[in-house]
Amino acid sequence: MPLRTALALSLLVFCLSGCRSPKAEGPGFLARMFNRDTVVEKNVPPRKAGIAGIGDENDQRKADAELKDTGLSAGSTDSSTISLTDFSNEKDIPLELTGATVVAEVNSVPIFADDVLKASRFYGQLLAEQDKLTPEQINEIRKQIIQKELQDHIQKAALASALRQDLKDEQVEQLDAQVDSMFNQHVQNELLPAYKVKTRLELERILEEQDTSIEALKSAFASLEMAKFFVSQKLEKTPELSRSELLAWYEAHKEQYHNDERVNWQQIRIRKGDDPEAALGKLKAVVQALKAKQSFDEVAKQYSDDLKADEGGNWGWTPRGSLADERIERAIFGLAEGKISAPIETDEAYFLVRVIEHQPEGYTPFDDVQEKINQKLYGEARMAAADKVIGDVLATASIRTIFDGRK
């Protein structure tokens, strides 16, 4: 697969999140994810919808009535099923969003509150501050996190479900082995250095303190890789754009490549202070050093009291019209590259400036940006195609959440 394709897939908008998986021996890791130990009853009426809250109210009421007929009610005591009642009103949302609370169901596969919460970048902050919060405040924050980030988990669950339908058992085993190997490399090359530890045991101890585990991280990693794998398999080859097509795009968007006139320059500043005579003597020493072919950088570091003295007096690229002192601006925009100005005197100081490079107003040539344009358009085409794949999967998935019907 071309490198640009891999990079485009890496930009798919998926949060790294976890799915609860039993720590049991037997089937491979992905097989256990595809067949979670707690499932929603298979006869739940399907809901053809994209994201929670989208759909006709009559369809909603009909589906809820059919759901009630299946016996899946809030008071169900059957431990092999998960109840998904109509949480269309604020008062119907569970009073406590605990880790085992089912917050969504995608094609009969439940998404638990912990799947969303522990994958959130806000979860660590919540743990750190929970002693200062009331149980009601904690639960409200949990609800807000879940509502904000649930869609990403729904997308991944739908893609995983679609992938499972496409794969045979032996293919699942092969993918499982591949993901396992990739995750082990991820632990060795990224997680251990990031947490500043040398062994998985040390990493596990740190993760336990953060109310998570290597298993949860592996689940998150596997979810992302499955999503990328499924989308990559469904994407059609993106046609290469010709030079004439790229040039036409460049001409249509040429203003993006307009450059204002600007100068890259250096400055030596000698403040007069309370002793103008000493400042003048210092200026003469600077001029003599420059005449002796000492570099402007070295002289600036030795004599200048400018803010950029330690950097050789380099002020970088400056567009015309951005300097407060017009005399200095006239000097730097009037000098040829590599030339040094005569001393410029103000009430406060003496200045000498040098132009490193002068870029006139104009446009970046097409040949200089052709490859960047090609990468941009290719990436956008791949992303659009990936979005369509995801949209098609979501459109045919059966999705229910605790936020259905809420705006």
User: What characterizes the major β-sheet?
Assistant: 4 strands, antiparallel
Adjacency order of strands in the biggest sheet: 5-4-7-6
Question: What is the SS-derived class?
Answer: alpha+beta
Distance between the termini: 41 Å
Characterize the overall form. elongated
Low-confidence stretches: 1-27, 37-91
Can you count the helices? 14
Q: What is the averaged pLDDT score? A: 79
Strand content: 5-15%
Q: Can you tell me the number of structural domains?
A: 2
What is the H/E order?
HHHEEHHHHHHHEEHHEHEEEHE
Explain this structure to me?
The chain is an alpha+beta fold. It has two domains: 3-238 and 387-401, no CATH class; 261-360, Chitinase A, domain 3 (Roll). The protein is built from 14 helices and nine strands. It has helices at 3-10, 29-34, 57-69, 113-117, 123-129, 135-166, 169-195, 200-209, 214-234, 243-252, 276-291, 296-303, 326-334, 366-396, and strands at residues 102-106, 109-112, 258-259, 262-271, 314-319, 344-345, 349-359, 362-363, 399-401. The strands form three sheets. A four-stranded antiparallel sheet has the order 5-4-7-6, sandwiched between helices. A hairpin with a 3-residue loop joins β6 (344-345) and β7 (349-359). α1 packs across α14 (366-396), α6 crosses α9 and α11 (276-291) packs antiparallel against α12 (296-303). The protein starts with a helix and ends in a 6-residue tail after the last strand. Residues 1-27 and 37-91 have low confidence and may be disordered.
